[in-house]
Amino acid sequence: MNLIDKIPVMQLAIGALLLGLAPFFPEPHLFEKLRMLFHGTLIEAIDIFDLLMHAALPILLIVKLLRMYFTA
User: Fold this and answer.
1) Domain that holds residue 53
2) Is the distance from CB of 49 to CB of 5 less than 8 angstroms?
3) Spatial separation of the C-alpha atoms in residues 66 and 64, rounded to whole Å
4) Each residue of 1-22: pLDDT tens digit?
C-alpha cells in the first residue's frame, strides 16, 4: 500500500481519465466492455484483457482516494 501512497493524485486522475475513456470516439472501450460484461457477452480473452487494461488506472484511483479518505 505504500506504493499507492507515493503516486500523486493528479497524475493518477489524468491517467485514469485518458486510459479509461480511450478511444474517445465512437465510444470509450471501458463503457463498451462493461456493457458487454453486464449483458453476458464478454467471453473473448482479448475483450477481458481489454477491460482489465482500461479499468486498471480508474480502479487504482478509487483505491487511492478511499485510502486517503479513511486514513485522514
Assistant:
1) 24-72
2) no
3) 5
4) 788 889 999 999 999 999 888 8
State the pTM of this model: 0.84
**Region at 7 (left for phi over 0; alpha for psi -120 to 50; beta for the rest):** beta
Task: Classify residue 58: in a domain, yes or no.
Answer: yes
Number of domains in the chain: 1
Cell of 56: 486498471
Check: CB of residue 41 under 8 Å from CB of residue 20.
Answer: no
Does residue 7 fall inside a structural domain?
Answer: no
Q: Using CA atoms, how far apart are residues 42 and 52, in angstroms rounded to an integer?
A: 12
Q: Say if 67 falls within a structural domain.
A: yes
- Rounded CA-CA distance 38/49 in Å is 16
Phi–psi pair at 2, nearest 5 degrees: -65, -30
